[in-house]
């Protein structure tokens, strides 16, 4: 048996790119890591493997706790982690969703070509930066009263449609059509609503961005055509989440769990895995609040996308419709959803809370929850790289339901902390190098943000995608490359 020693944790090779940490002690199931040996060498350098092992202690965890190829250390539960917990006898964990509830990505197509953008990159990046709110704190595209926040929490992108920030087609190309059923605004605290009400339609800071990209490669012509992608085409990628509202909601429920379910908390090896037992009032309350925050994040990305259409109209003096600026897809990568999966040797169907933290749903062709427009080819999966590397569009692979509860990676995955990044990089140098060497124009609120997100702080996205593709959990469709990027 081939093994891999990761600083005291031994992984056993199951097959190519599939490694297992065997069940022992109080572990309820084994843990699995989906990675090449090159990625494992990087993953072992932080606490990801310890965290995924701890995750196997959660009640009701089913089959395996799983690390995606882009895994890195997170808050309790690793980023790039998937954990499916029984919805009747298990639990739901805010830490396994993350603070930025429904952090996710959306890609918008255009019919512009790279030739039409060249020479106007600085004008475009300046205009986007001036019109898309970014950075820490308040300031959004709209500043509705608290009643509007409740409507957004309950209705998601349907609210944006009614208020002129969307078109019908946008809803049909968003995960769950941009609205989670079961969202309960009353379960979101007033403090969370107050934090969110002035941030509706804003990027925030950290690794969130808006990036204009060009399609450099189409690997699967048939699926590329179904997604409306072709080489040399300009697309726009938006990455952000639920801002202060989501962060406050996660924090509120972590504190409530500490007070109301201390017995369960004491059984776990890491307090940051705090979970509410399935069927408890607190589990139901958190699920309602989390679904409401998911709706908030979808509206956030929708408003940014619609404002981007207006910016392109001014820069290129054409209507957004004439530039064919339509949503390809929007998909969450910090979320927990009740889903029914076939598990165990007897093929039992069970309802599970599938937690995807820094992991993307990747349902294959034919799955009824894939939007009708893509059901014949599989769900689009969007994998952002760093500012200096390509991003990818994948489709849900045919092995995803068996291996990962229908999931794959969500990005390149960090190699170093933000603090370490700021010690090793100077934002101004990174910005100038990207422009001089790769013709990538970056504008940010601060140089520190650029340093934190320097290309060198991330894993090799090509390797992450190669592993996903070879495992059949997310198949390569197209690759894109940055043209200009704005961030908080």
Automatic annotation (TrEMBL):
GO terms for biological process: tRNA splicing, via endonucleolytic cleavage and ligation. Its EC number is 6.5.1.-. The keyword Nuclease does not apply. GMP binds at residues 207-211, 333-334, 384-387, 391, 410-413, 487. Residues 174-200 are annotated as: Disordered. Mn(2+) 2 binds at residues 239, 333. Its cofactor is Mn(2+). Mn(2+) 1 binds at residues 100, 208. Binds 2 manganese ions per subunit. It comes from the Archaea. The keyword Ligase applies. Residues 174-197 have a biased composition (Basic and acidic residues). Keywords: GTP-binding, Ligase, Manganese, Metal-binding, Nucleotide-binding. One of its GO terms (molecular function) is RNA ligase (ATP) activity. PANTHER family: RNA-SPLICING LIGASE RTCB HOMOLOG. Monomer. Essential for tRNA splicing and maturation. Acts by directly joining spliced tRNA halves to mature-sized tRNAs. Joins RNA with 2',3'-cyclic-phosphate or 3'-phosphate ends to RNA with 5'-hydroxy ends. This is tRNA-splicing ligase RtcB. It comes from Natrinema versiforme. The lineage of its organism: Archaea, Methanobacteriati, Methanobacteriota, Stenosarchaea group, Halobacteria.
């Amino acid at each position: 048996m081939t093994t891999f020693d990761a600083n005291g944790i031994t992984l056993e090779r199951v097959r190519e790119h599939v490694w297992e940490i065997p069940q022992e002690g109080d572990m309820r199931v084994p843990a699995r890591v989906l990675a090449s040996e090159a990625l494992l060498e990087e993953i072992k350098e932080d606490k990801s493997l310890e965290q995924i092992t701890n995750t196997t202690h959660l009640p009701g965890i089913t089959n395996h706790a799983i690390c995606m190829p882009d895994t890195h250390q997170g808050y309790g539960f690793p980023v790039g982690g998937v954990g499916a917990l029984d919805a009747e006898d298990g639990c739901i964990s805010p830490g396994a969703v993350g603070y930025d509830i429904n952090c996710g990505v959306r890609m918008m197509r255009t019919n512009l070509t790279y030739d039409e953008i060249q020479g106007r990159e600085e004008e475009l990046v300046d205009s986007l930066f001036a019109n898309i709110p970014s950075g820490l704190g308040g300031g959004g595209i709209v500043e509705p009263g608290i009643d509007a926040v409740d409507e957004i929490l309950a209705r998601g992108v349907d609210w944006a449609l009614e208020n002129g920030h969307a078109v019908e087609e946008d809803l049909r190309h968003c995960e769950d059509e941009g609205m989670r059923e079961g969202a309960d605004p009353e379960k979101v605290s007033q403090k969370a609503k107050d934090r969110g009400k002035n941030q509706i339609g804003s990027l925030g800071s950290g690794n969130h961005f808006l990036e204009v990209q060009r399609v450099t490669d189409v690997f699967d012509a048939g699926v590329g055509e179904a997604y409306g992608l072709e080489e040399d085409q300009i697309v726009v990628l938006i990455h952000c989440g639920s801002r202060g509202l989501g962060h406050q909601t996660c924090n509120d429920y972590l504190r409530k769990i500490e007070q109301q379910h201390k017995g369960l908390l004491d059984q776990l090896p890491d307090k940051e895995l705090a979970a509410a037992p399935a069927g408890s009032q607190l589990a139901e309350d958190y699920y309602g609040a989390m679904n409401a925050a998911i709706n908030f994040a979808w509206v956030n990305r929708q408003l940014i996308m619609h404002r981007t259409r207006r910016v392109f109209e001014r820069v290129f003096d054409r209507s957004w419709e004439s530039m064919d600026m339509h949503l390809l897809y929007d998909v969450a990568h910090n979320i927990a959803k009740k889903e029914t999966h076939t598990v165990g040797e007897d093929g039992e169907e069970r309802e599970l809370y599938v937690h995807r933290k820094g992991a993307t749903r990747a349902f294959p062709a034919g799955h009824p929850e894939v939007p009708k427009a893509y059901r014949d080819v599989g769900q689009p999966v969007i994998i952002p790289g760093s500012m200096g590397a390509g991003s990818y569009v994948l489709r849900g692979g045919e092995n995803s339901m068996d291996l990962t509860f229908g999931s794959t990676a969500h990005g390149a995955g960090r190699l170093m902390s933000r603090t370490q990044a700021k010690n090793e990089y100077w934002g101004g140098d990174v910005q100038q190098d990207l422009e001089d060497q790769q013709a990538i124009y970056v504008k940010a609120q601060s140089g520190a943000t650029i340093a934190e997100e320097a290309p060198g702080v991330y894993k090799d996205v090509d390797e992450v995608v190669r592993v996903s593709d070879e495992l059949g959990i997310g198949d390569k469709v197209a690759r894109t490359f940055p043209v200009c990027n704005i961030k908080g």
